[in-house]
Write a structure and sequence with these properties.
Pfam families: PP2C
Largest sheet: 2 strands, antiparallel
InterPro entries: PP2C (IPR015655), PPM-type-like_dom_sf (IPR036457), PPM-type_phosphatase-like_dom (IPR001932)
Protein name: PPM-type phosphatase domain-containing protein
Number of strands: 2
Organism: Crotalaria pallida
Number of helices: 2
GO molecular function, one term: protein serine/threonine phosphatase activity
Radius of gyration: 17 Å
Helix content: 40-55%
Length: about 100
């Protein structure tokens, strides 16, 4: 990538009486011989758990797909599905644990 590319971000909390629930990723990462720009905003308007998980895991899940470098579109789609499945499973298990505690 060109060294002349710059990026930035700014978070602004709205008027609602709850904490900021948006999470973002804004970074460059060196993988093999390439430099990748990773940028995303994850909206946590119904709680921070999923947005926080995505911030921490989504890009690694994409980059660890076996065919990321040869079939990028398919790898990205598969990583999104796998990440979504993990979120659903973790959330579902936590709901079951809450039910058992009641």
């Amino acid at each position: 990538m060109s060294k002349h590319i710059t990026h930035g971000f700014h978070l602004v909390k709205g008027k609602a009486c709850h904490p900021m629930e948006d999470y973002l990723v804004s970074k460059f990462k060196h993988e093999k011989v390439s430099e990748l720009g990773l940028f995303a905003i994850f909206d946590g308007h119904l709680g921070h758990d999923v947005a926080s998980y995505l911030q921490s895991h989504l890009f690694d899940n994409i980059l660890t797909q076996h065919d990321f470098w040869t079939n990028t579109e398919s790898a990205v789609k598969r990583a999104y599905i796998e990440t979504d499945d993990k979120i659903y499973l973790n959330k579902h298990l936590s709901w079951e644990e809450e039910d058992q505690q009641q």
